[in-house]
Write a structure and sequence with these properties.
By secondary structure, this protein is an alpha+beta fold. It has one domain. The protein contains 3 helices and 3 strands, in the order αβααββ. It has a 3-stranded mixed β-sheet with strand order 1-2-3, with no helix packed on it. It starts with 7 loop residues before the first helix and ends with a strand.
Length: 53
Amino acid sequence: MLIPMVSEEESRKTVDVYLVGPYHFKEEILKREADTIKRGVKFLFPLPEITII
């Protein structure tokens, strides 16, 4: 299975769940994406423990 790479703008139109690798930027990412979260999009942080927001 291939995971396509798309721009942030394009992904905001079609995504249900983001898989976020750089977990050490979690708080900054969540602040920046507050409107996206309000629309019901989920953010999955697999490290250091699996967290879905």
